[in-house]
Amino acid sequence: MALLENIQNNHAAFLDTLQHRFLDENRNAALKKFFHFGFPTKKDEEYKYTNLREITEKNYNFFPKEAHTISKEQIAELHLGEENFDWIVFINGQLHKELSKISIENVELLSFNYALNDPKHKDIFDNYFNSIADQNLAFTNLNTAYCKMGFFLKVPKNVVIQKPIHVFYISQNQDENTFYNTRNLLIAESGSKIEVIESHHNFDDTFVFTNSVTEIFTYQNAKADWHKLQNDSNTSYMMDHTFAKQERDSLTTVNTFTFGGKLVRNNLDFIHNGENINSFMNGITIIDDDQLVDHHTAVHHKTPHCESYQNYKGIYKGKSHGVFNGKVFVDKIAQKTNAYQQNNNILLDEGATIDSKPQLEIFADDVKCSHGCTVGQLNEDALFYLRARGISKNEAQAMLLFAFANDAMQNIDIEPLRVKISKLLAEKLEVDMSFEDIF
């Protein structure tokens, strides 16, 4: 494997570039675990439908060129049309303050690399870093071994951040395939509120492989929303792991909107650690050609009186391939659990495929748990009804597909993001209309 050889040859050189020596032991231990497990193959049950050879057989540069030519105008084109957001811009692994806008106060917001170099944050990293990330997974170990880009955000007790924060990860001016390991850490203390939007953008024709790990800690009565907008180029690969741990009376949402990328794998784990917790996972996927998007979710109900909702919608065109594997685990003591899981898919072309596997493992006896999956095509009767009223075939299809995706958009509180998702849906469906035009 080309990537495996890269890793073997680059680790010592990578450590020499870092100043935060207190992580060296963690990095070496993580790399040792990675070599023990190796890259997942289709023989592994969790990767049964996703072949990673396209990614792992390529060579990558572990030390991206820092120089870039990204302008403020190019950054503006990536925005959602928002006027009052804050944003953070990373280019080629480096934070660029001159292209960022941060106006929020009373929070600790640092680049991950800077936080690792600041001794006063050592206790925070000792208590939080890698504490909920699954250390038996190859790519989380690989990330721990190589991460240095990303951000750390701590929202103090009862602080409500009114402005969403949009985080841009950009790769540009690279003449070789490039390997990035992004690491994010969000701590929302009791009574706080925060919303984050994350997007990745490859401006080159060379391949970019991003291996991302995010850890979210939501404390009592806090609310944390994380929105992933995935609309990258066909020379981009994404391996994303997000872990969210919630305390009592908290609410955490992760929305994943996937419209681009050659191969995208989203792994999402929620861990309940108190009563009256609410967890929301929503996803909309629309892809074409030979793209592959794989959603793997898991909710660990460990305490009573908690609720979780998973709602994933997929629209597949061309020879694209979708995968959904959603799991709900309910421990014996987690009585009065309410868990809902739904995956609905539409195949628009004969070459498109979906493998869906919703799962429940319930050890409590007083619960309300349901799961379901549908795979089909557009309703011909509904299509005929609309066309009989003078609506073109493309517009009629768009109306039905917008309606199909609508309920996965219901809990988007950020209006510019909702509008952006609507426009991307229209763009992918190749119609000159948006959600607002239809409804």
Automatic annotation (TrEMBL):
Species this protein is from: Kaistella jeonii
GO BP: any one term: iron-sulfur cluster assembly
Domain annotation SUF system FeS cluster assembly SufBD core: ranges: 175-404
Domain SUF system FeS cluster assembly SufBD N-terminal: 10-167
InterPro entries in UniProt: Fe-S_cluster_assembly_SufBD (IPR055346), SUF_FeS_clus_asmbl_SufBD_core (IPR000825), SUF_FeS_clus_asmbl_SufBD_sf (IPR037284), SUF_FeS_clus_asmbl_SufD (IPR011542), SufBD_N (IPR045595)
Family in the record: Belongs to the iron-sulfur cluster assembly SufBD family.
Record's protein name: Fe-S cluster assembly protein SufD
Pfam entry (one): SufBD_N
